[in-house]
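Can't paste images in this forum, so I'm doing it all in text. The chain is below; anyone willing to post the predicted structure tokens underneath?
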Amino acid sequence: MKSKIGRLVVCAFALMSLAGCGALVAGGAVVGAGAGTYLYANGELKTDYAASFDSVWSACERTIAQMRGTQVQPVREISKGTISAIINDENVKIEIAYRAKNQTTVGVRVGLMGNKLSSQVIHDKIADQLAKR
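Text version of the structure:
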């Protein structure tokens, strides 16, 4: 039994490596790997930005202002933070976390259960804000 599971795991990783960017579906959540990819799990869309924590934090604040967010509640610590707001009558939560000198992870959840398309729109606007700097 263990050898069958082992072979299955090896085959799965072999298939992912052939694809160039691996993606694995586990329990309804998509797990992705590779540069420039998004991870959508449990209603939150995450990606890494090649920018400092401070730059990404500012870009997130500008994005919320551009989208006319209300009831904005920023909570910032040294290496992580959360910005909660209401945009178009939807609760939006943006989590920002330091990973390395010029690498920052941002997770976006729109609504209670999550909305992938709306989260992607916010990520696109954050990327636009970072490109303007």
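Residues 1-36 form one domain. Confidence is low (pLDDT under 50) at residues 14-35.
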